[in-house]
Amino acid sequence: MGLLFVIMLLPLSSIGLLFLKDDSKTRGLILNILLVLNAILFVLPILYAYINTRPDGNMFNENGPGAILWAYIILGPLCLGVQLILAILKFVFRRKTTHA
């Protein structure tokens, strides 16, 4: 259960960051596209292992499609770093609303 939480934390935080509005529509669109691409890149190895596992197989078997999960050694820190940078940019450029 803990592994599922860790794997889903980045995509779920990307979805949450999509709702922050930006002063510039173009910059906001670019940041949102980068957030979605980062989340897709992060989820691809586990999705590949799940889809290509035989019905009676184990998706974590390193002699089968589970070998792709070793990509998280590189993808984990890479996607987390990109996510952190994008989150900082989203918070810096978020729309300032004033209540009158």
Mean pLDDT over the full residue set: 86
Assembly status: single chain
Q: Describe the main β-sheet briefly.
A: none
Task: Assess the beta-strand content as a share of residues.
Answer: under 5%
Distance between the terminal alpha carbons, to the nearest Å? 46 Å
User: How many whole angstroms does the radius of gyration measure?
Assistant: 17 Å
Number of strands: 0
Instruction: Tell me the overall shape.
Output: elongated
Class by alpha and beta content: mainly alpha
Reading the helices and strands in chain order gives HHH
- Tell me the number of structural domains: 1
Low-confidence stretches: none
Query: Which percent bin holds the helix content?
Result: 55-70%
Query: Can you count the helices?
Result: 3
Keywords: Membrane, Transmembrane, Transmembrane helix
Transmembrane segments: 6-22, 29-51, 71-93
Your description of this structure?
The protein is mainly α and 100 residues long. The protein has one domain (19-92). Helices cover 65% and strands 0% of the residues. It has 3 helices and no strands. The protein has helices at 2-18, 25-51, 72-92. Helix 1 runs antiparallel to helix 2 (25-51) and helix 2 runs antiparallel to helix 3 (72-92). The radius of gyration is 17 Å and the shape is elongated. It starts with a helix and ends in an 8-residue tail after the last helix. The mean pLDDT is 86.
Helix/strand layout:
Elements: H1 2-18, H2 25-51, H3 72-92
Helix pairs in contact: 1-2, 2-3
Which keywords apply here?
100 residues; transmembrane helix; membrane; transmembrane
